[in-house]
Write the structure tokens for this entry.
Amino acid sequence: MALSGSLLDFNATDILQLIKMQAKTGVLTVVSRTSTLSFSFQDGDLVFADSPDTPFLDQLGRRMVREGGVSGRAWQRAVDKFRSDGTSLDRGLESASDEAQALLLEQVDQYRRNAMFSLFGWLEGDYTFSGDATLPLPVTAALSAIDTHDILMEASQRADEWPLIEQHISNGNQIFHNVAGDAPALDATEGVDGLPGWDVLSAKEQHILQLVDGHRDVWEIHELSRYDGFTSSKSLAGLLEKGMIAQSGVSQRKAAQAAPVVAVPDAPASHRARRGSPVLVSLLCVLVMALCLGLVVGMGSVATDQASTGLLASTASYRDHNVRQAIKVYRLVYGRFPDSLQTLQKEGLVDAVATVGLVYKRTADGFSLHHGPQSS
């Protein structure tokens, strides 16, 4: 089955649901006017991601040298070997310490997750799925595939949490200082107990606090941290709420570079102006919430006043949206709309409960779906 089209017609959530449902193996490539992302899947689950727009190996190399104790020469040899004959980086760095190997796996895993989450923010682009393509894996040890359902759930959680984070971290040029005093150095093993409030912080918050120095802005903290933009922003927001840090100023970045980091988790500086505007951030948040939470009804549905109907209306909208998504998936697979909602049930796309009270009809230009009399 050929899988290709436009994100305007079939969005990232739709594509991932189909790949998972069909347990497909291959490579999904999405191309926009400015960027390209590729994702490899095994039996419907994410294995790895790659993008020519992001110098991943260069970024990873700087971190391995800075934090992993790997020499620049050893890293370059491993990269050259990977590029020439496909030898994985973990095998090319067999003499590296266990801590360095663990850091390597952690960063590769984070990169593929970040690349996938960034796709949810794409408003346009063309996609193609190739069942006979593969992506070279930079590591092999202990890098298991990520359940696509888990990715969709985490995207939903991020969309739910971001409005709260945005109340504290509104753009990337904010500078913070440590209210309680200097935090221990990143590699410190002593002196931690003397910092007030240290014990109540999560491990991620402790790591981010060690990067707050009264001079670095949010972008710099993110780039130096082990985490993606969302996680580092969430940790900064947590530190603010706990009174551990306070804003002390702003950096002199250009306005386009000062957008919230969550919009472009791992974009290099040359891409921030293209993909990091505040307007885009707002659109991404709305889009991800709508697609991942499924709390909106597609075009053609009957609008409801959620202020008056509350939870019942939200639940109905959620079911309606799922049925509409199932109809679109069926059409993508078979090239036509289903004859009835029972057809979707037979294909395992929806269950009987999801279609209760819904009236479906094929039309000359598509289909109609609305609520009708409940059957007794």
